[in-house]
Design goal:
Distance between the termini: 27 Å
Order of helices and strands: EHEEHEEHEHEEHEEEEHEEEEEHEEEH
Number of strands: 20
Oligomer: single chain
Radius of gyration: 21 Å
Helix content: 25-40%
Length: 372
């Protein structure tokens, strides 16, 4: 049986950030296992690559706290490691009475959460900043940005490897058992052959599979609120003729389960729209072209220059939501060291959807604190 001090399950942005942070403490024998052939193949690489400011989330929640803290840590990390990014800013826009009320609420929430430099905009102020955008009211967030998430994860991987972390790709966890000295984790390697790993500490950063991993320890995931409900989001590309037409991200007022179909700006100046949000039963990343009308109708309320023919199916991602379909209740990140369940040294990270990417470095610091 192979042995290690810390076993991290999942090599998305969260798992890599935890590995990098723990390796700086001189912990020996850290192993990251990942079922895919490389890092960030699920939620971490199928998103808008936005650095969120932190004004969408309930004050005092982990989402709010770790987003604000993580944003500062992320900008510092990107600058220090010369990873492409841009603090482009974002405007949340509204045209209906309900949207205007939501933006007022977001402004108050963001202020309470400690988000810097938020300001409410008149229609004229929106037009001065973004002449192509139509809005009855707006909220400017200068702290919001975009970045190269692949380069970010590659940097975390490289720094972890440089400090002796072992990354084992094509390795899928099949079972977990408590032992007198920690945990025995049963793994199937790239050839499907069984492998057993003994670890004193296990960090479950398995993303879309994190509820299943938690269940392997005997936790009743449904009764205890660890159950995940996969929620798909699609993106449609915008014709290159509109490249450079916007200088900031433009978002509508959020819905109960998403931030709404918004503009997604890339560092190369290209533009997408998305994501939408709907619950799914299978991990299928195909984009349904019939949803183009939905995207067009929503986006043209604030981007009148668009035509249907400007949009083409692009990519999709799946969010690991703890919020079941039909619920409007706020669902926070679930980050717990499980000593109270008789599982000392086992840390569950469940439901780390947006703003998980922005929060990743702060989550890693939080996990370090839980482990002492």
């Amino acid at each position: 049986m192979e042995q290690c001090d810390v076993l991290i399950i999942g090599a998305g942005a969260i798992g890599l950030a935890v590995a990098e942070r723990l390796s700086r403490d001189g912990r020996s024998e850290i192993v990251v296992v990942e079922r895919h052939e490389g890092f960030g193949r699920e939620t971490s690489s199928r998103n808008s690559e936005v650095i969120h400011a932190g004004f969408y989330y309930l004050t005092g929640s982990l989402k709010a706290r770790l987003c604000v803290e993580g944003r500062h840590l992320l900008y510092e990390f990107l600058e220090r490691n010369e990873i492409p990014h841009q603090r482009c800013g974002k405007i949340v826009v509204g045209n209906s009475r309900a949207e205007i009320d939501k933006i007022d609420s977001l402004f108050r929430l963001g202020t309470a959460n400690g988000v810097e430099e938020l300001s409410l905009l008149t229609p004229e102020a929106v037009r001065r900043l973004e002449p192509e955008v139509v809005a009855a009211v707006g909220m400017l967030s200068p702290a919001t940005g975009i970045f190269d998430s692949h380069r970010f994860m590659a940097c975390l991987e490289r720094q972890s490897l440089d400090r002796g972390v072992l990354l084992a790709y094509h390795c899928e966890v099949r079972g977990i058992a408590r032992t007198s000295r920690g945990y025995q984790v049963d793994i199937a390697d790239a050839d499907g052959q069984p492998l057993q790993m003994a670890a004193e500490v296990v960090v479950n950063a398995a993303g879309l599979g994190s509820d299943a991993i938690a269940g392997m320890t005997g936790i009743d995931v449904l009764a205890e609120g660890y159950r995940l409900y996969p929620c798909k989001g699609e993106y449609f590309g915008v014709h290159p003729r509109h490249r450079g037409r916007l200088s900031r991200l433009i978002y509508p007022a959020p819905t109960a389960i998403s931030l709404g179909i918004h503009t997604v700006l890339s560092l190369d100046g290209s533009m997408r729209l998305g994501p939408n949000a709907f619950y799914v039963d299978e991990m299928n990343y195909a984009v349904d072209d019939s949803h183009r009308d939905e995207f067009f109708e929503e986006a043209r309320t604030y981007l009148p220059f668009l035509t249907r023919d400007d949009l083409a199916a692009d990519t999709a991602g799946i969010r690991p939501k703890r919020q079941p379909q039909g619920s409007s209740a706020f669902a926070d990140f679930l980050i717990r060291e499980e000593s109270s369940r008789g599982l000392p040294g086992f840390v569950n990270l469940v439901g780390l959807e947006s703003p998980g990417l922005t929060s990743s470095l702060a989550v890693a610091e939080y996990v370090r604190g839980l482990l002492g």
